[in-house]
Amino acid sequence: MNMKTKVMSTILAAIMLTMTACGTISPPIQNAVTETTMVSTDSLADSSVLSESDSNTNEEQIRTNTFIAEFFDSGISFADTSKLVTEVMKGCTFESETDSSNGIQKISLKGKNGGGVLNVMCIDLSKSNLSYDMEYILENFGDYYFRQTASQMNGITENDFMSNYRMTSSVVSKGKYQRYASVQKTDGMVSQFGYTETYAVLSENKLTVVSGAYLSTDMMERQSFSQVMGHFRECVGE
Fold first, then answer.
1. pTM of the model
2. What is the pLDDT of residues 49-63, one digit of tens each?
3. How many CB atoms lie within 10 A of CB 237?
4. Cα(221)–Cα(198) distance, rounded to whole angstroms?
5. At CA 125, angle to CA 123 and CA 128, rounded to 5?
6. Do the beta carbons of residue 108 and residue 20 sit within 8 Å?
7. Which of 32, 31, 25 minimizes the C-alpha distance to 216?
8. What is the pLDDT of residues 5-21, one digit of tens each?
């Protein structure tokens, strides 16, 4: 492993630690239920297909991690987003606590029946030496941050997403990325309602990103969180 790879690996580890600093989010804890799964011969027959799929996923993950490491090692800087956060959170009905570190505004949200997180940042790319085009940056950074944010919903995977929308667009010197998913999951005793979204705008060498996730046993709290995300989109620029 050469020196550049070591540096990039160290940076990536620090990024992931920052992104997951708030830990996982979950509604009130329920009693655990142990289940036994029987594996059929058909499942074993499909193992080679699954192995190939896993291999492709791992290769994609490596490419993404490499890009993220290059991105944060490319001479970027962070702009202040405190005014944006203050403006949007004025009408927020959730209890909230904001922490600013490493250029990222991290907001913890709490409702009566659930909780969530919001990360807000503005990255200045004017001195960056990245050679990627606008759409590539938006897609890769957006997808990476979406996965990091969604993973904070405790016990929820992509298989639980009822909807999974993804959009990237660019016009002249402005690009947008949006990806969101909703969750409705039940174990027969209690239902969980979740929503996660990452929204990013790249314009004039400034990449503004808002990414959040919320999980609750109350459907209306999920709706309220999606409205907060909508307000952020309006302020960032739809």
1. 0.79
2. 556 656 767 887 888
3. 11
4. 18
5. 130
6. no
7. 25
8. 444 444 454 454 444 44
